[in-house]
Structures are given as structure tokens and as C-alpha cells.
Amino acid sequence: MEEKIEKKGHKLQLNDRKQGIISGVKDVISFDPEVVLLDTYLGLLTIKGKDLHVKRLTLERGEVDIEGEIDSFLYTESKSAKRAAFASRLFK
Questions:
Q1: Could you give the domains of the chain?
Q2: Prediction pTM value
Q3: Burial of 19 (0-12, 13-18, 19+ CB in 10 A)
Q4: Which DSSP letter does residue 60 get?
Q5: pLDDT digits over 4-29, tens only?
Q6: Sign of CA pseudo-dihedral 56, 79, 84, 12
């Protein structure tokens, strides 16, 4: 029987703009050294920076650790943004 994932809290911790610890992550949409796109319980989260690396990914627990030079976090609630991100990856 498939276990239903309950809606959990969302937490974002930033340490010295070099390490981000994020909980409440449903899925990783995409990631590269400049942009990480996460689907969280509070909407899509875009993380921009330089030399970004997903250090730890535990989707069963909804946790992601990111390292690199973090410049910004942006939340988007639109589901169309998720589709647009997918389309932009297809047509690069």
C-alpha cells in the first residue's frame, strides 16, 4: 500500500550565505551551478547563486542541503512556473 505523504512544515536556514538547509521539500525540479528549483509545501522555491551544489537530498524526509555562494531565494505559487521551468530545460 502506498504511504500518503502528509503536509509538513517548511523551514529554511541560511548559514553565512554559503550553506542552505531546507525542509518541507516535495520535489527537486531542477538544479545546476547557478539555479536550484524546489517544489516545497509553500510553493516553488528558486535559489540563485554561483557554484551551487546539492550536498544532501532526502526526499523521504523532505530535506535538501545546498552549498555554494547563495544570492537569493524566491517563492512562486504558480504551477505554470513549474511547467515553464521544465520547458526551458527541454529547449536549451
A1: 11-81 (2.60.40.2000)
A2: 0.76
A3: middle
A4: T
A5: 445 578 899 999 999 999 999 999 99
A6: negative
